[in-house]
Specification:
The protein is of the alpha/beta class. Helices cover about 40% and strands about 15% of the residues. Helix 6 crosses helix 8 and helix 7 packs across helix 8. The chain binds glutamic acid (GLU). The site of glutamic acid has 7 residues, from loops.
């Protein structure tokens, strides 16, 4: 089977050196196997997107000499596909509307004596999972704001605890109920990252997902979704993240590490790539 990888940036700010690392990981893994590396624009959350960043992203990629294979997939063109998948999950009885606000969830979690999850935030304790059907209908009819959540208990009843493989960390077992009932859609946001990424990786035939270690926990959620949707399960490779001298993860909002600012400061593409190589030799510490 040919290897297919992808680089899937969210253009909610200028491309930065962390993105470059993710892009190179995907490109190299594909090249090492004579495979293909695809590009996908993850702009599903339109509230966070600015069109100028998308244009800048293409400019930066061209300046860096990074190229991708085949057609670019753009999430904002795929709302109908996500809607159909949500409908499928609804038909399977795996979705329910949740009327809790963020503050209410925070309070519920605190009252249960739980701390927020390190990378996934406040795991939803399932408050709206078993509301009486009449009350749900009443709230929906009254237009009470709500999200659509995945019922992980039902997911687990359906698929059990499936495994997935990480190229660095080996075989992993996914326990769906350990991640809370995640949001798959909301009014202004037709599909969450979790739903879109799973559907899109399958649609693009991605065989190897390379991405930062900050998304390792999310992969369990993605594996659960693949299970209920009957989608193929790619292999995963979660790479270490770049850090500054103090060991702090480079933030996306840190403009100084954007490709555009390095370009503006007179760096050549080769110098940027060499700096990244040096950072990787130093255990991921970026010093430019
Ligand atoms: N769009 C995500 C980001 O820019 C990456 C998602 C993924 O690789 O699965 O951080």
């Amino acid at each position: 089977m040919p290897v297919i990888t992808r680089f899937a940036p969210s253009p909610s700010g200028p491309l930065h050196v962390g993105h470059l690392l993710a892009a190179l990981q995907a490109r190299r893994l594909a090249d090492a196997h004579g495979g293909r590396c695809l590009l996908r624009v993850e702009n599903i959350d339109q509230r966070a997107q600015h069109p100028e960043y998308l244009a800048l992203m293409y400019e930066d990629l061209a300046w860096l000499g990074l190229s991708f294979d085949g057609e670019v997939m753009v999430q904002t063109r795929r709302f109908e596909v996500y809607r159909a998948v949500l409908e499928q999950l609804r038909q399977q009885g795996l979705l329910y509307p949740c009327f809790c606000t963020r503050t209410e969830i925070k309070t519920q979690v605190a009252e249960m004596g739980r701390a927020p999850h390190a990378t996934l935030g406040y795991l939803y304790p399932g408050t709206c999972r078993n509301l009486p059907p009449e009350l749900v209908q009443e709230k929906l009819a009254a237009g009470v704001p709500h999200t659509w959540r995945l019922d992980m208990q039902r997911v687990q009843d359906l698929i059990g605890c499936p495994t997935w493989h990480d190229l660095h960390r080996g075989t992993q077992r996914c326990v769906p109920t350990a991640y809370g009932d995640v949001v798959l859609a909301r009014k202004d946001f037709p599909a969450s990252y979790h739903l879109a990424v799973v559907v899109d990786d399958a649609a693009q035939g991605v065989t190897h997902v390379t991405r930062g270690a900050d998304l390792f926990d999310s992969t369990h959620i993605h594996r659960a979704l693949q299970g209920v949707l009957g989608l193929p399960v790619p292999q995963y490779c979660h790479h270490a993240l770049l850090r500054d001298n103090a060991g702090k993860r480079l933030a996306k909002r840190d403009g100084a590490r954007s490709i555009a600012s390095l370009r503006g400061a007179g760096f050549t593409p080769q110098q940027v790539l060499d700096s990244l190589r040096t950072a990787l030799r130093r255990g991921g510490i970026w010093q430019v």
